[in-house]
Amino acid sequence: MPGFEYLGKEELKELNNLFKRDKACLFAHGFEKFRKRFHVREFEDQCAKKMKTKFALAVTSGTSAIKIGLKALGVKPGDEVITQGFNFIATVEAIIDTGAKPIMCNVDQSLNMCPHDLKKLISKKTKAIIPVHMLGVTCKMDEIKQIAKKNKIKILEDNCESMGGKYKKKLLGTLGEIGVVSYDFGKTITCGEGGMIFTNDKKLDKYVRDYHDHGHELNPKFPRGEDTVKIVGFNYRMTEMQAIVGKEQLKKLNKIIRENKKRYKKLEKKIKNVASFREEPKKGEQIYDTLILFMKNKKKRNEIVNFLKKKGFGTKNLPDAIKWHCASFWKHALPRNQIKRIKKTKNLLESSIAIPIWLRKSVTDYNKLGEQLHDIITAK
User: Whose CA is closest to 328, among 63, 89, 99, 82?
Assistant: First the structure.
């Protein structure tokens, strides 16, 4: 679950140092006379090293990261961008904001993009594919990449919900032309708000870096006020305060995943013989953020959901925020035909229960929860 559970004295100490040492310089660029460090640039370098990519760019959110990435890939009005029906609406919003048309792909039993359905959606207008690694589990990237390569389509990998996960030993967010993560308050690590764009392509990095800062090239030959510019951009800059929190959170990522796994495995062990779980790609390594089980019996499902609320665990997105995570409910953003075609996705999600893995709950708590859920599931 989210890094906000691990916010503490480390983040506070470094924030205090910003005000004491750098005279509260909160801006990512310039003001050299006031400061000793550039925290946004440091955060980018640390994230690039962690992800083993050549480039990383810090921005205001995962949503803005997706939009900027699409712009860098050349997505324009009239183009089509394929993404999946189980998602957060931000991905669709970013597509719409570029002027492109979102095309919705069904998910399979993994609750991520179904490669078989993806094949049916490719057209001459398809400019990009956005697979989304939802709630800690990887997409089937080999199949998706094969389809993209065959049709000469770019991949923007949305890893906003699964930072630290892997596919074939490579970190998620590094498998497409561009990858993005989110650092909002509900993510694996957090800055409150924020996002990061990853790529190994120098030209793509040049575009996203210029675009996120009003087109500024940060030309070393000129002061910022006389900087050169070649493209029209926008303001999606991260602040120094966000970067400071992000750097401390990044140090905690591996521990968060380890602690997630301990709790997840205890819960899974207790109910694995009586429950049906989402499919996990064999080549993937999840971050154990959420355990999702299928429960077709509506009465039993409601009983489990109410029990989870009563015990202080709650649910994550399914069913509590399904309207924000299932494209079937986005009539304000999508045409009727796109909503209609992902009926399979809606049916899968409406029979799912997402149990969050809280770090504030102990391993013993999850072991006990598993025993109690076992009894509820098997009771007649």
Answer: 89
Q: What tokens appear for 374 in the block?
A: 């076992």
- What tokens does 97 get? 């904001």
Cα–Cα distance, 323 to 317 (Å, whole number): 8
> Which run of H or of E encompasses 373?
helix 363-378
What is the domain count for the chain?
2
Mean pLDDT of 358-380: 96
Q: Which residue has the tokens 């997630």?
A: 260
Are residues 102 and 215 located together in one domain of the fold? yes
Write the CA distances from 155 to 266, 324, 378, integer angstroms.
36, 23, 43
Mean pLDDT, residues 259-278 taken together: 97
Compute the average pLDDT of residues 357-365: 97
Which of 211, 234, 249 is at the close of a domain?
249
- Tell me how far apart the alpha carbons of residues 290 and 293 are, in angstroms, rounded to a whole number: 10
Q: Which residues pair with 178 in a beta bridge?
A: 156
Whether residue 12 is found in the same domain as residue 148: yes
Domain ranges, residue 96: 3-249
Decide if 363 contacts 262 (C-beta within 8 A): yes
Radius of gyration of the chain (CA): 21
Tell me, yes or no, whether 236 and 262 share the same domain. no
Same domain, 82 and 121: yes
- Segment 183-242, tens digit of pLDDT: 999 999 999 999 999 999 999 999 999 999 999 998 999 989 999 999 999 999 999 999
284 forms bridges with which residues in the sheet? Answer: 167
**End-of-domain residue from the set 231, 249, 267:** 249
pLDDT at residue 71 greater than cutoff 90: yes
- Kindly state the helix (H) or strand (E) to which residue 371 belongs, with its residue range: helix 363-378
Long-range contacts of range 31-38, CB-CB < 8 Å, 24 or more positions apart?
38/240
pTM for the whole thing? 0.96
